[in-house]
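Two records follow; treat each independently.
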Amino acid sequence: MAGCGAQPVTRALVAWAVLAAACAPVDDTPDVPLATLAEIAGPLSGAVSVGFGVSDKQSRLVNVAIQQGVGVSDRPATAGSGSTELRGLATSPDGIDYVFVWDSVADIGYQPTESVFVGIAVSAGSVAGIGDQIGPLVVDNSGLPRFYAVDGQVCRASSLLGSPTGDLRGKLYIGLWQDLTYPPTAQSIATADLGEQDFSTPTACADFHFAQVAPGEYQLIAILDDNNNNLDPGGFAADAGDLTNLGGTRVQVTEAAVDQDVVLNYAYQP
């Protein structure tokens, strides 16, 4: 067959149609979702906006995963405040853009770090797509205020000292104080409502988590409100007399996250 240039007018119309189809541009893009990352200027610090686009010939909904790591992006990236939800994202053949907010402090820490890579993986149901990776990048969080997590469990003592006899079920609260006197006279700097708990069993425990704690010395106090209506979770304001003088749990927050268990040694029942 002749090339794709002008054809003699004597050629049949059907032959011309076949030739035109043969000469049309060929779309060899795989029929799978595609994800691309926008380049990021560095050095990076704190909450990093990671722009990405997703496209799909069939406009299917996709799930994406943002990854990070030193040398290779092989670990999940922690989402920061205001980040895009990464599941059920709309696509189009031309692509739709989104922004993931990466909490680089949570993943990299405060030390200046080179050779950081950020990657993206994408899928539409069981269909794996084609992702992307950018790097090496420099992440330097050394100039940011430092905060660390305090995690642990509240577990009851073998005997609930100071507790009235009776029901050991109710709302569990834990508070974090910079005031190290006991009972504390200042307001707690953070409180957590740990929900309904049953401490009738001696081995009962409940997890707690404070995400943003500056280095320093603190005390943790956990208290069970067995009437379910007497403590204010905004202020954790049981009267000093109600706390008795059993003492809180001291915790020293240094240059790392802290694991600290707390003994529940008081149940509040006015």
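The next record belongs to a different protein.
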Amino acid sequence: MFQFEVSDDTLVRAPGRVWDYLLALRHMAIWEKLNRNGLTVELVAEANAMLDEVKEASLPAFASNQPGPVERDAAVKECSNLDEFWLTKYAPIARRTSKAAMTWIFGGQTPQVGQVESLQVVEDILTRLDAIETGAAPQDVDVKVLTGLSNSGLNKAERERVGQLLVAARGTRTLADMSDASSEVSDAAFSAILEKLHLWWKAASGIARTAGLKKVELIRLGLASPARNKPAPSA
């Protein structure tokens, strides 16, 4: 029976680190820098294939539709990066159509550091967009704002996809819940996948460190930590 018995914490954390790295590539203009330093399309495809192996191994055939731990972790990571991406890309587009609509949908929202807070920002934006579509928004919110956002990528299909991610991100299954599940993947095979992912992350992080990236970009890739505020001197 597959018990997920992997003792090395560096290996256990490898899928999340690789996922963060690949997710940052989707939302940041750093691909060309990394590509010039050796992060090829083939290497990215290799990492995605390994992540699929981890997901397949972690999610054997369950009757329940609730997300497993790997799926939930991936959903949380993607949603927690969307708040900044949406606010940066879509708020200016909404403003061009209707300042009232932009203020109602995005106003008062700021990118959040915590995952829970980021999920809430994304959920609030989705809720307001749905309200516009169903006629439940304030009267001064122009429904035409949906057309502008849709043409720029935030269409109904994307909203539904992110809505499903939010459901997955708030799932509650843990690795302990998976322990009674049968799987054709052995513990040794699963450990081997994690080892390959760990080696991939080491190589990719080395590429990033030599590509002349800014510290904020390294932070988004999971390769640096934000500076902590120093405690105020006592009086």
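Discussion point: The chain has two domains: 6-60+182-224, 76-180. How would you locate this feature using only the token line?
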